[in-house]
Design a protein that fits this description.
single chain, four-stranded antiparallel sheet, 256 residues, NADH Oxidase, disordered N terminus, 9 helices, alpha+beta, globular
């Protein structure tokens, strides 16, 4: 195992017992040793390793299995040079072995719903599954011209809540759909970073980039949203800039 996997000594194990499982300890090692690495060595990330990391990224939980994500691995030398410039020439981009754009899609929910029905592993596809993807998902996302369907959904939702109780809020606006797509895609990004760590590599998620320029470089449309750029590679000795710390857990965790 990578020697850095146990390098984090800032957080003491709060519940270590002789009975904790090897899987739990391995997971702790990965999470606690993951850092945002700003400088990488010249060691490449093999294609098969990156492919496995991306496969694990796509196992992230996501709403209705609609998978509203894409991953753009920028390997072309000229594109990489331009992408690094669009990342404000950050060291995490300049020294990375692989540079990846994590992209959320707001326009593929219907196409993916139909693909799920075509590729559903249990055949014939159960009626409740067909109804869910043909009816429920469609009703959830449709907004209509000038959001006329959204207005109708809003009114119907208020009535149902008063009569029957709690009801999941549909997506009324473009921003609702964008939030849905980016939230799901961020889960996949975290899986990707942890998978890289498990393979002995590191990463740095970057929010500091010129999104319009990056979208132009990658030929993306208004329905593509770059959630973050990820630089990945082998951690350099000077790759971690600061000692890791977090605020006390009690500040954020509330039992109600």
């Amino acid at each position: 195992m990578d020697p850095n996997m146990n390098a984090n000594t800032d957080n003491k194990d709060p519940i270590a017992t002789p009975n904790h499982t090897p899987q739990l300890q391995a997971f702790r090692d990965i999470v606690e040793s993951r850092r945002s690495v700003r400088r990488f060595t010249d060691t490449p990330i093999p294609d098969d390793v990156l492919a496995d990391c991306l496969r694990l990224a796509m196992l992230a939980p996501n709403s209705s299995n609609l998978q509203p994500w894409e991953f753009y691995v920028i390997d072309d030398a000229d594109n990489r040079k331009r992408a690094i410039k669009n990342c404000m020439n950050q060291n995490a981009a300049k020294t990375s072995a692989r540079l990846i754009a994590i992209v959320a899609r707001t326009d593929i929910w219907h196409e993916h719903a139909q693909q799920i029905l075509r590729e559903y592993p249990d055949q014939p596809v159960p009626k409740k599954v067909k109804d869910y993807y043909n009816k429920v998902v469609t009703l959830d996302f449709l907004r209509g011209p000038a959001n006329v369907i959204s207005a109708a959904k809003w009114g119907a939702t208020q009535v149902v809540r008063r009569v029957k109780g709690p009801l999941k809020s549909p997506y009324y606006t473009f921003e609702d759909t964008k939030n849905w797509a980016t939230n799901n895609t961020a889960l996949a990004a975290e899986n990707l970073m942890l998978a890289l760590r498990a393979h002995g590599f590191d990463s740095c998620p970057m929010g500091g980039f010129d999104e319009p320029a990056m979208k132009a470089l990658l030929n993306l449309s208004d329905d593509h949203h770059i959630v973050m750029m990820i630089g990945a590679g082998e951690r350099a000795d000077n790759g971690v800039y600061n000692t890791q710390f977090r605020f006390d857990q009690k500040q954020f965790v509330h039992y109600v």
